[in-house]
């Protein structure tokens, strides 16, 4: 009987401690409060790299060195640690980049944790900085405002400039100039949007980008920065402490968007059961097919 009772107790203890699968909970501590984030399994290289750096203490005492209200807050530059007030920041890193991991469902919604990177001219593969990241604040958009993000603006403008060199497109150019001069910007941009198909036919390049109904709902209710989608890797999401993003974005800053008063961070990661994360933050992990 004694051995049977012991076995029962062991089984019961095992069940009580079985909390299911775990995940890494990221805590970003600042003088303005704490943010809590999860990292996406769909971007494994970025997830692994961020966890590694956080465990090493790489981010500790670095600054949120660039903040733009209704857009994002950026940090992770090791050169920002103990940086002089007039030092230009944003070029530091661990000495490597991370290959881009674009995923259609991971968008720049409010709270998105994304990787900074160098521009397309020197970084055509859109590889991410090894350490610099930004957190999206963004804003809530009206649905018609999203039209401006439904196409590749650079390709669109380049194609239209080439079209306007031909006489058959002169009437279109005159119409656009008249609309712009009248101050009717909504009509002006609407006319440009109406030419996407014509520009695609003229250039032979894909210009149109589609928003899913879920994306439209997110950007018109939760908000974000939709123009960044497809250009920068989104690898996580702040699920607690969203108000801290607003507080940091609102601080006074200089002409380079660096806060006048330093905003240092401490970043830690802890393995926590997904059930506890869901219960504490109300975040629901997507079910895998």
Helical region count?
A: 9
Based on CA atoms alone, the radius of gyration comes out at 24 Å
Overall pLDDT score: 90
Low-confidence stretches: 1-16
Q: Write out the CATH superfamily name of the largest domain.
A: Cyclophilin-like
Number of strands: 10
Structure description:
The chain has 289 residues and is α+β, with helices and mostly antiparallel strands. It folds into 2 domains: 22-141 and 222-281, Cyclophilin-like (Cyclophilin, Beta Barrel); 151-203, no CATH class. Mean pLDDT is 90; it is low at 1-16. The protein is built from 9 helices and 10 strands.
Write the layout of secondary structure elements.
Layout: H1 2-17, E1 22-30, E2 33-39, H2 44-56, E3 64-68, E4 72-75, E5 97-98, E6 112-115, E7 128-129, E8 133-136, H3 153-163, H4 170-182, H5 185-193, H6 196-203, H7 213-221, E9 234-240, H8 242-249, E10 266-273, H9 274-281
Antiparallel strand pairs: 1-2, 1-10, 2-9, 3-4, 4-8, 5-7, 6-8, 6-9
Helix pairs in contact: 3-6, 4-5
């Amino acid at each position: 009987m004694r051995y049977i009772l012991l076995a029962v107790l062991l089984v019961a203890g095992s069940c009580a401690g079985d909390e299911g699968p775990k995940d890494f909970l990221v805590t970003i501590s600042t003088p303005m409060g704490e943010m809590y984030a999860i990292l996406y399994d769909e971007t494994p290289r970025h997830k692994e790299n961020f966890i590694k750096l956080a465990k090493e203490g790489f981010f500790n005492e670095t600054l949120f060195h660039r903040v733009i209200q209704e857009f994002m807050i950026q940090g992770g530059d090791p050169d920002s640690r103990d940086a002089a007030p007039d030092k230009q920041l944003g070029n530091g890193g661990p000495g490597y980049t991370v290959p881009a991991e674009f995923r259609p469902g991971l968008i720049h919604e409010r709270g998105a944790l994304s990787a900074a990177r160098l521009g397309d001219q020197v970084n055509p593969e859109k590889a991410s900085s090894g350490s610099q990241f930004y957190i999206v604040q963004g804003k809530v958009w009206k649905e018609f405002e999203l039209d401006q993000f439904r196409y590749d603006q650079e390709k669109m403008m380049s194609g239209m400039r080439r079209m306007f060199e031909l006489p058959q497109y002169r009437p279109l150019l005159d119409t656009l100039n008249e609309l712009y001069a009248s101050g009717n910007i909504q009509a002006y941009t609407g006319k440009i949007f109406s030419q996407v198909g014509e520009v695609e036919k003229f250039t032979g390049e894909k210009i149109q980008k589609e928003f899913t109904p879920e994306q439209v709902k997110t950007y018109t209710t939760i908000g974000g920065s939709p123009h960044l989608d497809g250009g920068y890797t989104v690898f996580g999401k702040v699920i607690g402490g969203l108000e801290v993003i607003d507080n940091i974005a609102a601080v006074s800053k200089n002409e380079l968007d660096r806060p006048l008063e330093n905003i240092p961070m401490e970043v830690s990661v802890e393995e926590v059961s997904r059930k506890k994360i869901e219960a504490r933050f109300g975040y629901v992990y997507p079910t895998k097919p």
